[in-house]
Every structure is written in C-alpha cells, then in structure tokens.
Amino acid sequence: MKNLIIFFTLVFFGSSYAQDNFTSEELKITPLVEGTLLTPETSGKTPLVIIIGGSGPTDRNGNQNMMKNNSLKFLAEALYKNEIASFRYDKRIVKIMKTGSIDEKKIRFDDFIEDAIAVTEYFKKDNRFGKLYIIGHSQGSLVGMIAAQNRADGFISIAGAGQEIDDVIVDQLAKQAPGLVDNARQSFDDLRVNGTAQNYSPGLASIFRPDIQPFIYSWMQYNPQVELSKLNIPILIINGDKDLQVQVSEAEALHKAKPGATYKVIPKMNHVLKSIDGNDLENSKSYNQYNLPISEELITIITQFIEAN
C-alpha cells in the first residue's frame, strides 16, 4: 500500500528579482494562490506554461513537508533555459495549512479547478506572453485539462490518470493489496450512490475516513477521458515507464480518448520525473532527493511540442 498512500495523501503583490540566474517574479493570484513566474529575456513574446502540481499538499516546486524532490522547480527552470516562460504555484492546501486552519471536510476537488482557472484567466490578460499552455502533473492533469477548456492554446498531461479516480485506486489495490479490492469497490459504489461510505476496511481508512469522503466524492465526478475529449487544442500525453503510481495503461486510456494527441512513454522516468536505472528502492528514494535532476528527454519532448504548436 506504500505507493497508494504516497499518491493519495489528502492532508491535502508581485516583486521581481534574479535568482540562480533566472528572472523570477513572485505573484499572488488569489488570496489562496501564490506562485513563481520565470520569464526568459527574449526579443519577442515567449510562450508561457502554467504548471499544476499533483495530489496532497504539494507546493510550487513539487514538494511536500516530508518529501523534497524539486521536480516542478527543475521542470520550470529547464523550460526557462529553452526560452519558455512558466508559472508554478502552491496548491491552496499549502497556504491553508500554514495558517493552521485546515478543515478537510470543506475541501473539494472543484477548489483546485477554480484555482487553475483563476491562474489561466490571469495570464490570458498578460500581454508579455504568446501562446499559453497548461501542464498538469498527476492529479493536476485532470485539473489542468478542465481549466484548459476554451482557455489554453495547448495541454500537456504528465502522469495523469485515464480513469475515474475510484477505478484508478481499485486497480492499484489489485496490484498492491488484492484482499482489499472487493471492499474498496463496494465502498466507492456506496460513496457514489449515497454520498457516504461506512463499511470500509480499516486498511482503507486513508481513503475513506469521513473527513475526506466529500473530497473523494467530488473527485469521482470527473472522468479524465470525457474531459480530455472536450479539448480542441494540441495535446501531449506523457508517462514514464518507471512510474510506480500511475501505470502506462492510464496514459494509453487518455490517448484512446484523444487519438490525435501526441503520445510519449519515456523510458526510465518515474512519477516525480526522475530517471531511474535501478529497482523500486532506488525509485522510492528519488522522491526525497532534492538535487537529483529530472529526465532530459521530458524537457526535450515538451519543448519540441511547444515549438511545433
């Protein structure tokens, strides 16, 4: 269940300056959304990518309290070097947790969609940039594809689920804890029909404890294949074949929903975008290696997609 717990942890004024040779600007988009804009110095209008992080209390760099890998920070900086601007932001949960006022019962998946839309609308009005692309990582893939509808010029999914979230979790359980599959399926069905699940196994408490059931329920209302099919813009679907959390089959499901999309499986890339040569232990350790670079092939694929579209 280790990988499942990693993936589904749910406890959940601008100034410009140069930092590490990057021209950076800290922006507050809404009272709950703050992030970092990197703007390369070019002669024309540079394309801009909005980077949306994955599940849990993920900050703008792709990190959580007990997990620092800097995956999204490295992604933004690599794109900067290829003359692509980026904005990455802390999930609202990060800001709420810092105030000590977190109330899990009030958090909904739609909150993250609302934040992504606010960010997208903000930058649509910024005349410094050319085309606008959304990159959604993991949970951020579904958030991003919804925010991109009628707003973005292109969409990039990295390690995004291709099924409704209850089906994704059941599939993970089938591989990691098959004895819990039947109970999980019944509990999800109860949640979908009744809005609550009560007869779940203690081994599934990280998913079904009462305080986060409203969030899971709201997440279950969205089918990634349906949402992706609504996009009429260039789409890039990426997954790593070393991803312990999101199987390549999830990316295949997204591609099936949008056959015209560009589809890439990156050898050796894991869920936090690192290249892994070794076993699952090395893979897991990379989640907390803050200075391990991300996949070079990932940067090349994204850059070429943006240049071509």
Write up what this structure looks like.
This protein has 309 residues and is α/β, with parallel strands linked by helices. The protein folds into two domains: 243 residues, Rossmann fold, CATH 3.40.50; 57 residues, no CATH class. 39% of the residues lie in helices and 18% in strands. Strands 1-2-3-5-4-6-7-8-9 form a nine-stranded mixed sheet, sandwiched between helices. Helix 11 links the parallel strand 8 and strand 9. Helix 4 crosses helix 5 and helix 6 runs antiparallel to helix 7. It is globular and about 60 Å long.
What are its keywords?
39% helix, 2 domains, alpha/beta, 9 strands
Quick overview of this protein structure:
This protein has two domains: 243 residues, Alpha/Beta hydrolase fold, catalytic domain (Rossmann fold, 3-Layer(aba) Sandwich); 57 residues, no CATH class. The chain contains 13 helices and nine strands. Strands 1-2-3-5-4-6-7-8-9 form a nine-stranded mixed β-sheet, sandwiched between helices.
What is the secondary structure topology, with strand pairs?
Layout: H1 2-7, E1 15-19, E2 22-30, E3 33-38, E4 46-52, H2 71-81, E5 85-89, H3 92-99, H4 109-124, E6 129-137, H5 139-147, E7 154-158, H6 165-176, H7 181-194, H8 205-208, H9 213-219, H10 224-229, E8 235-240, H11 248-257, E9 262-266, H12 280-285, H13 296-308
Parallel strand pairs: 4-5, 4-6, 6-7, 7-8, 8-9
Antiparallel strand pairs: 1-2, 2-3, 3-5
